[in-house]
Model the fold of this input.
Amino acid sequence: MNGEHHYEVTVRWTGDTGSGTSRYRDYGRDHDVLVEGREPLRGSADPAFRGTPDRWNPEELLVASLSQCHMLSYLSLCARNGVVVTGYADSASGVMREEAGDSGRFTEVVLRPEVVVAEPGMVERARSLHEQAHRACFIANSVAFPVRHLPVVAHA
Done:
């Protein structure tokens, strides 16, 4: 599969409390992430940056995106290599460090996939496919910080 893939997303700020951004503390960070034909994703800033805690923040979405991409790459590789996965869950975490000048950056994301395979003879191959999935992940290939994976594989 070669070619370009294009993605259209609209982010609409919903946090105007009546005076716009007249002062730093006077506006909400709430927004909607919109893709045609889907329910809006309710976003905000991280609560540490005056965001609303019950909404998704960009930092969580970045970690989720890396976790999803790894999982989808991994499941595809397993299916193509005769490894039958019957369960998959990932407790991913990321570290972002604030820097001078109102900036910051992620220093790493760690994926902790817990995989269940159908047969004991599939465990080693299932474990080894994580490295290949990491190299195949479009999102991991696009970020400028390490994405580590610490998989656990067991059989049903």
User: Anything to note?
Assistant: The first strand starts at residue 10 and ends at 13. The chain is about 25% helix and 30% strand.
